[in-house]
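Standup notes
- DV: blocked on the single-chain target, sequence here:
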Amino acid sequence: MRLVKIKYCFAFIVILLTLITFLISFNFIPTGFKHRTIIESKSPQPVTVTEKNHIFFLKTHKCASSTVQNILMRFGHMENLDFLLPSIHNYIGNPIHFNTSMVSNKYSTVDGKFDMFVHHTRYSQEVKSVMRSGTIYVTILREPAALFQSLYSFYHFDKKYKCNLTEFITNRLSNKTSANYIKRYNNKLGINQMNWDLGMVTNDFENIDMINKHINMIERDFDFVMIFEYLDASLVLLAHIMQWPLEKMAYLPLNSRKNTYKQILSNDDVDRLLKVNMADNMLYKRFLLKFKKMVSKYGIEKLKKEIKRLMVINQEILEMCVQSVANKGYAGTISYKLKANTNAICKYIAMNELKYTSYLREIQYERQKKYNELDKLMNN
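- DV (later): unblocked, structure below
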């Protein structure tokens, strides 16, 4: 009988301890310390996102590159970064490929390396020797037939060739082989413009193997290739790559024109432009496919939401900054009249490339001057 009582007592104690453990696990009984589940104890700490501050942007002609450039110049300006700047105007090389002798000592840096390179140049891998570690390499492409049409109109090729675009296509591009030897406008503008800007030599424009070799090199060297026709999507993806808040991608279209300047081409004319710009067409198709894969990986619905948010940001900028829009820029490009007493954002977001570049030169020259004076003091 006594043994039975002991068994019942032991069972009662076990049940009581089990109940107490259960109540403690659900915080019904205070224990003097904060209870944490296994999941909570292993939950990751908040990750600090670090913005990437080094970028090389190969500025291709007539691909909305001035708009992208302004975004990058504003970021670098506000972050007090070092730009590789042209000595005059807005080109660092082209038609000559970039080389280090083009770097101006007047606007150089202590270590000869730069955070940002965003001006027109003709690409060569020598660019890597002047960019800081961790640089992100970016460019932008456009559908080749539309690109050539824009080049022809914007740079007034009609005056050089004494004919409009349709006449040029009929008379000059009838022979695909000879077309590639048409002299480039100002020695830097013409057939297969994107590949030219990206460093390809003219003699390779019809060599399939050399075109593929060049495209493969671009694919290895560049981290991200934006697409003109999907500019907002490209900017969202660029913000993601650079770890920048989307507000940094706000823009007003610069150096662009309305479609009223666009000449209507027949399907045959478009086909002929694509054939003569074969290298550019191959380049564009390769990176358009790669762009689609990036969109898919990022998430199409997520991307649409971010595009919508960027459009809202841009509309707010437009309403805050701009009094009126006109077509008074070079070749009928969009120009902005700002409202009175606007802030710094408005001032720089509507500033043209040449003016902004001159302003950055002043800043960098003064900075370099002070560094040199300090070095001179310590060396004497």
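- Follow-up: The longest helix spans residues 353-379.
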